[in-house]
Sequence to fold (669 residues):
Amino acid sequence: MSAVLTDMPKTDMSKSVAPATTKAIAPSKGGRPWTFYVLATLFSLYVLALYGPMFCIYILSFQDIRGGLVFPMKGQSLHWFVDLFTQVRTGDVKGSFDRSIKLAVIVTIITVVVSFLAGLGFRKRFRGDTAVFYMMIGSLVAPGLVLGLGTGLLFQALGLNASWYTSALGAQLSWTLPFGVLVMFAVMSRFDHVWEEAAYDLGAGRWQSIRLVMIPVLAPGLVAVVLFGFTLSYDEFARSLQTAGSLNTLPLEIWSMTLNVTSPSLYALGTVTTVISFIVIGASLGSIVLIQKKRGSSAKG
Amino acid sequence: MKSDRGDIELAGVCKSFDGVTNVVDGVNLKIADGAYCCFIGPSGCGKTTILRMIAGHEDPTAGEIVIGGQNVVGLAPVQRRTAMMFQSYALFPHLTVRENIAFALRVRGMSKTDRLRAADAMIEKVRLTQFADRLPAQLSGGQQQRVALARAAITEPRVLLLDEPLSALDEQLRVQMRQELRRMQQELGITFIHVTHTQLEAIALADLVVVMEQGRIKQAGAAREVYAHPHDRYVAEFMGGQNVLSGCVEKVNGASFTLAQAAPDGIEVPLQARSSINVGDKVDIAVRRDDVALVRPGKELPPGCTTSLPSRVLAIEYQGYFVKVMLDTVPDDEFIAYVPEKTFFADPFTIGDVVVATWATGSALPLA
Fold:
């Protein structure tokens, strides 16, 4: 190529190249179409509407001791965060937070295990599979408040004490399990049965095939189920309301605080719970990225 | 694991998935130890099911599968000492090339250093050393195939089963990998069973070609035998390269018979292996496309030719070393002549020309 270029007379080259470059640049000169600005405005308004209310809460939680429940902002401090965890009158924040985390962890573990097994089970058709599937979806569409109320009544009728680790756990699972199973179905549909067959062909037993092939291949999907299970449980209100018994979970505690707490510590609580949620989501997404990165980097080496 | 021999015998093997129709219907076959055997047939003919039954991924409904003198029905692939290479290779996406190849040794409980050493030796054999740490997704189709081959071969199987191994590759690579498969087979010295629907692939590779239709074996034999001496119309048409004509026997005279056809004097066909033929029988005959000569009407037939079928040229395709000439010789079937390039262009035909198709009488083959 270079030999050809040096052989060519200089005048010819400049003549043939110049028009081509101007033509290639031309389309980008026009700038953005007006629709871009309309849609950009619409999107900005959407983001503002979505995050604006939340940010009001976060900002107001950083007021000092003079702070009130409405704008304008009075000073800046972490007073209400300290207040949140030290003052008894604000409610049992620490205890309810502990319970919510424990409950979310238990719910997550059960959801992941059961969803994974259901995913395995539903790969083949079996008698009554459609019925089982619709029963599962049914518990997803049932109104949460009613379901919680019913669970509470049932426990009462059976003479059992409602508490967060029994009745509330059950009520929450009726919500997280169908979600987990549906996510698992989507994940499973991308798992090629032939990998299992290949593992069997190479001498792997059932358990080895699950441990060495299925779980690693499905890992990103399982993390997604973890994320669903945890956040759905941690946020759950309607189903827990009548089933948590005498000790509140965090969402219930926040709700009761909105009724009797009139200080920015309520907002501080909102900020803290949001941070926790973001940590969990970040950790989940981070581990997915890490799994993929590990696969990528081991490939380079 | 009594025997290291990889000879296979299928005896009355049937397979039915729904209990009504047999996908594989009474297959009997012997495959010699160390042979390269190709199963060929259209999709749904049962060839992959046979492969999967030999591999131990499917149990036959009836019949016996004997490998090295041992009935293996009901045994796991590892106990059969077979290994399968899947159509899409089924490489584990989360494991590197090295870990994929070492997988079989890992599940056998071999220590990490031992199995990685063994895998590296195998990687060298298939010339993938520089790719050992890559993931399957970062390999080309040909490289993936070599990984699949190495992963199957590391278990030292006595039979390697390949399910349409070349179908995922593009044309050029297919020819290259075909040679590589043959090289690996000779190097490992084990029985290969290869399922394909491409007859070119089968005749290029196999010691034993098995042509199947609807769960039954139509013909099994050496590549040349199946191609040049098809048993019946189905095999002749499936393997290609033959014109199949049918007609009624007009007269039988000694070593040959005459087939009534559009030809003025009928078609004279040597009896060959067929012993009993009677006047009035409906018979199919095959004539190789490269045996057909075309002459202009009125010209003399080449020596040894007694048949003359007047035809019209329907289409002409240039194929490089030969020219494919399509004729309207037979009313319903296609009739094609492969004319050597130089012969064709010495006196080229055009579409619509009237020609006489003829062939050396001895080259016509009566079909069952």
